[in-house]
From TrEMBL:
InterPro entries: ADH-like_C, ADH-like_N, ER, GroES-like_sf, NAD(P)-bd_dom_sf, QOR-like. Keywords: NADP, Oxidoreductase. GO terms for cellular component: cytosol. One of its GO terms (molecular function) is quinone reductase (NADPH) activity. The keyword Secreted does not apply. Pfam families: ADH_N (PF08240), ADH_zinc_N (PF00107). Residues 11-323 form the Enoyl reductase (ER) domain. This is NADPH2:quinone reductase. PANTHER family: QUINONE OXIDOREDUCTASE PIG3-RELATED, QUINONE OXIDOREDUCTASE-RELATED. The keyword Glycoprotein does not apply.
Length: 325
């Protein structure tokens, strides 16, 4: 028997319970993984609260990201073998000491990336990759706005976009987070608690606006994000940490300059094995070369996941947080 966090009913952080579970032997196409570190992400709170329904009903084990060692593999598995160090982003179920995984979702880690870094970089780092390299192809000509610049995805995106030569504007909610974002590639950082981010973006860009706005905040930054865009600019809404947008008025896109809008998810961008390998390979490359540094700023025992969720939702964390089984 091993331990895991399970959710029997949706609600606040207190619904996360630490209990014993049994993990069977891997079937065809599966691998059994012993976790050494588990990534904490805001999407975990969406499943816990019921904002996103758990795909297989109740009870469920939350968590979309982890790193560890392959213990055993099932029939037909050739992509990994026992003893391999691996990491992954999805499917749900990483808040456990051990789990079964579809083997084709596992990425073998190079020696230069440690387990805590790997556990905290896969979901956030591949999210940054698809946003900057696929949803919108960021270049040195790009002017972009990234909300929650001091968050896990934001810090990775800032470094990566700066490496690509873009003008990188961010928002953050405290003086400390502003400085953190500036240290991670952002050309300009707006403290949204003290300044109107729409007005500041217009000041910074000389009234022209941005080519693309990356928005994981949701309710609190809508429709302001649209007002930060150039005509025919792209609004990429990839999260909703402040709550969902209740009514999206398609007509606003026309009124504000023939704008584009997209609601992407990582799992659409890595649905095939080939896409996963390409996206993860790009991330591993920039991390291995030191272009992007993954700072693990918080660490909690898996048994204290309740505290981790409270701190995450209370905006008390910065960068990457991991749970240790």
């Amino acid at each position: 028997m091993v331990h895991a966090i399970r959710v029997h009913q949706t609600g606040g952080p207190e619904v996360l319970t630490y209990e014993e579970i049994s993990v069977g032997e891997p079937g065809p196409g599966e691998a059994r993984v012993r976790h050494t570190a588990i990534g904490l992400n805001y999407i975990d709170t969406y499943f816990r609260s019921g904002l996103y329904p758990a795909p297989n009903g109740m009870p469920f084990i939350p968590g979309n990201e982890g790193a560890g060692v392959v213990v055993s593999v099932g029939e037909g598995v050739t992509s990994v073998k026992p003893g391999d160090r691996v990491a992954y982003a999805g499917p749900l179920g990483s808040y456990a000491q051990e789990r079964l995984m579809p083997a084709d979702r596992l990425v073998v880690l190079p020696e230069g990336i440690d387990d805590r870094t790997a556990a905290g970089m896969m979901l956030k780092g591949m999210t940054a990759q698809y946003l900057l390299r696929q949803t919108y192809n960021v270049t040195k000509e790009t002017v972009l706005l990234f909300h929650a610049a001091a968050g896990g995805v934001g810090l990775i995106a800032g470094q990566w976009a700066a490496h690509l030569g873009a003008t990188v504007i961010g928002t953050a909610g405290s003086a400390e987070k502003v400085e953190l974002a500036k240290a991670n590639g952002y050309t300009h950082v707006i403290n949204y608690r003290e300044e109107n981010f729409v007005e500041r973006v217009k000041d910074i860009t000389g009234g022209k606006g941005c080519d693309v706005v990356y928005d994981s905040v949701g309710k609190d930054t809508y429709p302001g994000s649209l007002d930060c865009l150039k005509p025919r600019g792209l609004w990429a809404s990839f999260g909703q940490s402040s709550g969902p947008i209740a009514d999206f008025n398609l007509g606003l896109l026309a009124a504000k300059g023939s704008l584009y809008a997209t609601r992407p998810t990582l799992f659409s961008y890595i649905a095939s094995r080939a896409d996963l390998e390409k996206t993860a390979g790009d991330l591993i490359d920039v991390v291995s070369r030191g272009i992007v540094k993954i700072e693990v700023n918080q660490q909690y025992p898996l048994a204290k996941a309740v505290d981790a969720h409270r701190d995450l939702e209370g905006r008390k964390t910065t960068g990457t947080t991991v749970l240790i089984p």
